[in-house]
Amino acid sequence: MPHTAPHADPRRWKALVFIALAQLMVVLDATIVNIALPSAQTDLGISDGNRQWVITAYALAFGGLLLFGGRVSDMWGRKRTFVTGLIGFAAASAIGGAAVNTPMLMGARALQGVFGALLAPAALSLLAVMFTEAKERAKAFGIFGAIAGGGGAVGLILGGVFTEYMNWRWTFFVNIPFAIVAATGAIAVVREPAGSRNSARLDVPGVILATLGLVSLVYGFTRAETDGWTAGATIGFFVAAAVLLAAFVAVESRVKAPLLPLRVVTDRNRGGVYAALGLAAIGMFGLFLFLTYYLQVTRGYSPVKTGLSFLPMIATMITGSTQVGARLMTRVPPRWLMGPGFLLAALGMVLLTRIDLNTSYTTGILPSLLMMGLGMGTAFMPAMSLATHGVQPRDAGVASAMVNTSQQVGGAIGTALLNTIAASATTDYLKSHMTPAAAANPKLLQFQSAVHGYTTAIWWAAGILTLSALIALTFVNHRPGNGGSAAASGGADEAAAEDAVPVMAH
């Protein structure tokens, strides 16, 4: 095991605090607005048809621009990009909190997505270049992974508290102190290693194709949710996404300084990690949504009680990430943490398919949440670290952006895909159980149909997580204890990068 590099930044652990705080702000913003949305809709008179755009505007801008943000951080400097992203995110949050009409709120959400796309890859790539010794890297990514995994649930709790006791506008204003503290701290303690920037020119065709392709893909799933899978617009967006992303790959293989160097994703380990994380996000994001609706609508929980119900999951997620994942990462091959971790989470979901109208939280829901938290925490930890392991310093930002892209695009797809499955199952159940006896108590049948829809979607989510585990076990073939990333060398060439991650898909 190599010792800490002599040039390691002595302030790197302080820097981790501010980087993690920024990551928490970005991740919780993906869910904090969900619980506040009904109040904002009433206050601003947002139509039912437009309300999804409060969520989708953020996901589209964030998911579509992440690769661009990652490359900007490599070229312009990670610290500068990180601080700019924080300041912009705070400004966009202030606009959202002060919104007086629908366009102002949606514009603020899109702006949050734009600055989040600068901030998120810069945060992860700063960790990748600052923590290069294996054990330290494991600990740093354990903390970061726990925050990335648990932030969504923290968002649900804060969203509930603000909506119930204050005002929906505070779900935006809360970002401002987060951003000020993180930006001030970053300016004071974050230092980038010398020689880790990429001086190449920006690949403009790549930026346009990747952004339009990812936006078309996410928007296609959003349209499927509202218009159906066979609608002309839905199919049109999926075809456009396929053509644009295929053109993007063709361009990237030919240009001198690509936006996404194909060596970053054709590496067998990283490719497996991105695919596994994307699928896991599809399963987990959908679950948050269904469980929130089940607890609030079916069981009548308040927004705060709903948010607090997720706390045990956050606790086991942090335990899995910092105690299991981080401690075993330098001793056990990552696939033996990722595969079993995703399988444990899938098993927790299978248990959750037994819910009915009167399921006890303690015996019917809590065991599932504990298993899912522990499984996801254990799997996220090595995945986050391996996604940037062995990457040349000049590619750290774009490799980090791919982690966020797979999670954001996966989350947006998961919400739309599982919502569509749940809605279809609910309608089918309603039709097949509409007997004269059921018609006498239509509200009961509606609740039963909704719960059937949730459980059907949760079965799908469990299957998707199982597939995620199989991908991790099949493709991720990295061995622990072979030192830090190639980033440690402060400018390793292609051969050194290949030595750092021994199994490559050429």
Mind sketching the topology for me?
Elements: H1 12-44, H2 48-76, H3 78-97, H4 102-130, H5 134-165, H6 170-173, H7 175-189, H8 204-227, H9 232-252, H10 262-266, H11 268-298, H12 303-309, H13 311-328, H14 335-352, H15 361-386, H16 396-432, H17 436-439, H18 442-475, H19 494-500
Précis, in short:
By secondary structure, this protein is an all-alpha fold. It contains 19 helices and no strands.
Structure overview:
- By secondary structure, the protein is mainly α.
- The chain folds into two domains: 12-202 and 257-500, MFS general substrate transporter like domains (Growth Hormone, Chain: A), CATH 1.20.1250; 203-256.
- Helix content is 78%, strand content 0%.
- The protein is built from 19 helices and no strands.
- It has helices spanning 12-44, 48-76, 78-97, 102-130, 134-165, 170-173, 175-189, 204-227, 232-252, 262-266, 268-298, 303-309, 311-328, 335-352, 361-386, 396-432, 436-439, 442-475, 494-500.
- Helix 5 runs antiparallel to helix 12.
- The two termini are 28 Å apart.
- The model is unreliable at 1-6 and 481-506 (pLDDT under 50).
